[in-house]
Amino acid sequence: MPRSKNKVAARARRKKVLKLAKGNFGRRKNVWTVALNTVEKGLSHAYDGRRLKKRDFRSLWIQRINAAARTHGMSYSVFMNKLKTNNIELDRKALAEIAYHDAEAFKAIVTGLK
Q1: What's the pLDDT tens digit per position in 71-85?
Q2: Residue 63 belongs to what domain range?
C-alpha cells in the first residue's frame, strides 16, 4: 500500500503562511522557509504590540492629565489623590479626553477639588 502524504493539507498550510507573508520584499514573500520565519516573527511582534499598546495609551493619558492639572496649579499625583478622596470615579482615559477636548470642564473638576 502506498504511503499517504496528505498533500492537500500541507499545501493549504503553506498557502496560509505565504498569504500572511504577502507584501514582504524579495524571498521573504515566496520562499517557504524564509516566509515562515518572517511570518512567525511578525506574529510575535503583533502579539507583543497589542500588550504594549495598553501601556502606551495609559502613559499618554497620564501625560495629558498631568499637563492639564499643572496649568491649574496642581501636580498629577495631588490631583489623582484628591479625586480619590472625594470619591470621584473617573478613569484616566475619560479624564484625558476631558482635559484634551474640553478645558473648561477640566477646570471645573480641578476647582471643585480645591
Answers
A1: 999 999 999 999 999
A2: 8-113
Q: Structural domain tally of the chain?
A: 1
Q: What is the 3-state secondary structure (H, E, C) of the chain?
A: CCCCCCHHHHHHHHHHHHHHCCCCCHHHHCCHHHHHHHHHHHHHHHHHHHHHHHHHHHHHHHHHHHHHHHHCCCCHHHHHHHHHHCCCCCCHHHHHHHHHHCHHHHHHHHHHHC
Bigger pLDDT: 4 or 71? 71
Rounded percentage of the chain residues whose pLDDT exceeds 90:
91
Reported pTM: 0.79
